[in-house]
Design goal:
By secondary structure, the chain is an alpha+beta fold. It has four helices and 13 strands. The chain has two domains: about 100 residues, Ribosomal Protein L25, Chain P, CATH 2.40.240; about 80 residues, RNA Polymerase Alpha Subunit, Chain A, domain 2 (Beta Complex).
């Protein structure tokens, strides 16, 4: 598990107006909360935060806070980052305070290993879940959960109970849900040539006209 440091400042005031003013001077408004931890409002440098979570551990990166006396040495993870819908830059952030000696729940991405036998035969591998929920110590969170799919044939599936995780890591689930499937690729309908279609329609029309003529002669 990656560990980085992040400078923070305590802020006394909160609200939309305060948040706008902070962003105008290059600061990111944020809040810290957690089990047995009184929520606190802070500010951080958005570029420093982006750099802190840009590694392979992503949102599971352990962040040690620096600067503010009350928070110096406190370890947190970035729980959520709100992003501007157009500019895509961070506009606020939520941090979750953790205890390094207590197991917590984390979301870990799945990493597919190998090429399935069924894919070579023309099958389509589908990842039903992109990440899985795990319970472990903060220092033991894997960067990803590797799932080997080389033996999968068309029609095979991998369920959560079949997924292997490192020692000390527990998969959190109530039902044995599907994680990966390998299915047949549905053939696309061939486009119909309009000239051929017109020819068929013309032939049908001629047959109908001929049939009507025969009926009239019979009468």
């Amino acid at each position: 598990m990656a560990q980085v440091e992040l400078n923070v400042d305590i802020r006394e005031k909160s609200g939309k107006g305060v948040a706008r003013k902070l962003r105008a001077v290059g600061k990111l408004p944020a809040v810290i909360y957690g089990k047995g931890f009184e929520p606190m409002t802070i500010t951080v440098d958005p570029k420093e935060l982006e750099n802190a979570v840009s590694g392979e551990s992503g949102l599971n990166t352990l962040i040690t806070l620096k600067g503010a006396t009350e928070l110096d040495g406190k370890v947190v993870i970035l729980k959520e980052a709100n992003v501007h819908p157009i500019r895509r830059n961070m506009i606020s952030a939520d941090f979750y305070a953790i205890n390094l000696k207590e197991r917590s729940i984390f979301m870990v991405p799945i990493n597919v290993v190998g090429t399935a036998a069924g894919q070579i035969e023309g099958g389509s591998l589908q990842l039903v879940r992109n990440e899985l929920e795990v319970l472990c110590l903060p220092t033991e969170v894997p960067q990803s959960i590797d799932i080997d799919v080389t033996a999968l044939e068309i029609g095979d599936t991998i369920h959560i109970d079949q997924v292997v995780v490192p020692e000390g890591v527990e998969l959190v689930h109530d039902v044995n849900f599907t994680v990966i499937t390998l299915s047949v690729i549905k053939a696309e309908a061939e486009p119909v040539d309009e000239d051929e279609l017109d020819g068929v329609e013309g032939a049908v029309a001629d047959e109908d006209a001929s049939a009507e003529g025969d009926e009239a002669a019979a009468e």
